Amino acid sequence: MRLGIFLCSLGLLAGLGAPAAAQAPDFANEIWPIFEARCVSCHGEKKQRGDLRLDTRAHIEAGGENGAIFTAGKPEESSLHNLIILPEDDPDIMPGSGDPLTAEQIDLVKRWIEGGADFGAWTEAAAPAPAGPAGPGKPTMEELLATLADGTAPAPEEALAKLRDAGALVLPLDQKTPLLRVDFNLQGDAITDEELALLAPVANQLTWLNLAKTKVSDSGLAALESLPKLTRLHLENTAIGDPALAHLAGLQHLRYLNLYGTKVTDAGLDSLAGLGNLEKVYLWQTGVTPEGAQKLAAAIPGVTTNLGEQLAPDPAPEEAKPEEEMKDDAPADEAPAEEKPAEEAPAAAPAPEKILEASLDEGSCCTASKADEKDCSHPCCVEAREKLEACVKCNPGAADFVALVKRFDAGGCCAAALAEAKKCDHPCCVEARDTGVVCAKCNPGAVATDDAPAAVNLFDEGSCCATAVLANKDCDHPCCVEARSAGTVCGKCNPNAKPAQEA
After folding, report:
1. Torsion angle (degrees, nearest 10) of CA 375, 380, 382, 388
2. Mean pLDDT, residues 107-120
3. Fewest beta carbons less than 10 Å away: which of 335, 421, 441, 458?
4. Residue 496 is assigned to a structural domain of this protein
5. Residue 15, SS3?
6. Range of the domain at 242
7. What are phi and psi of 460, to 5 degrees?
8. With 50 as the cut, is the pLDDT of residue 15 above it?
9. Domain identity same for 299 and 178
């Protein structure tokens, strides 16, 4: 092969009349656009996976942690070429996310190296346009998790075993990352500050933590100060108050914080003002006022603060249909056609494929693959998908969501979102879903299903008591406990409640 190429290159001198070799690709016009579109998000100025940058000539020539990435004239000895031609299911293929490079793009890179890897006059990427008033955009959750995972060693097996022995659900975010999700929620009030000490050995891997319904205290949350990679934190239905939030002030990667049903007030939110990456804070049934929530939103551009009051507007009343208007104007001597009672068409069951896609956990390997318009190739996910189910190992929240689906009202916002293979994003529905129930305001029919406690009809829709009953428990607010012990309904939380005999 090489001998043939060599002879062809000598064709003019030998008078053989062979055509001249194809010109090597121009870096600035043909190679750089590939790097810019597919490579620099992980190998650029802001992030350098493997200590490799591909946005300047000097950095490309310097290579990364494994040395030079190309040898001029020898694509077969260049990792820049060899990594882009790996099979699609190889974990080392580059680019690491999205579709593989096309055959044309691979050929361009190969021929550029073969031609001597000439950069021409190109030295670096053009300077980006100045950021607008809101400043540069934050990385996506997928990009953030990739950055946090880069260079992170797996957690010690002994530490994982101790967490599991304590009752925690411990799972990797996906099969290719050392980052972990630790969930104590299932153990509830059996978990105290003592168990939080078990998190220290996995501090460098822990990024999702669920302490909902546990008995952690304000002082106990000091253990979270040593968890720098936390991006998602559930503290709902715990007894924590304002002092606890001071321990969260250093969690600069935190994106999601659920404080539903805690004792937090406006004063405590001041501790969160410096968390510039925070995106969602749930504050339903806390001591936080609308003014306090607005103050936090002003301090953190783009954050959503949910007090449980931002409900979807009621649909506008339908206008009269032309047929109805014509019916009123019909001549008196013309007998109207006999009308048959309209039969209500049964609601179509959501397609299993839609339920599967909607049930995937945010940030999971399956969701990341969907964002790249392909299915996750992990064996466990492939096996589950063949059964039209989500892999519970990689999507531990999927089963809870699927259990809620049967309670959605036909024609409601939750069912409409499911028909598009999505979860409803109305704040009230997100809040309810995060606490394991269906939003009673948007799904009033849910309270009438056979498996819903009849007692829910005593309470105002969407109240703390109704929400608790739908979760098969009693509301633990002191005012509600006192009312229940007296055989009545708490009027403070259920001002429109019906007397028991009317329910």
Report:
1. -100
2. 91
3. 335
4. yes
5. coil
6. 144-306
7. -65, 140
8. no
9. yes
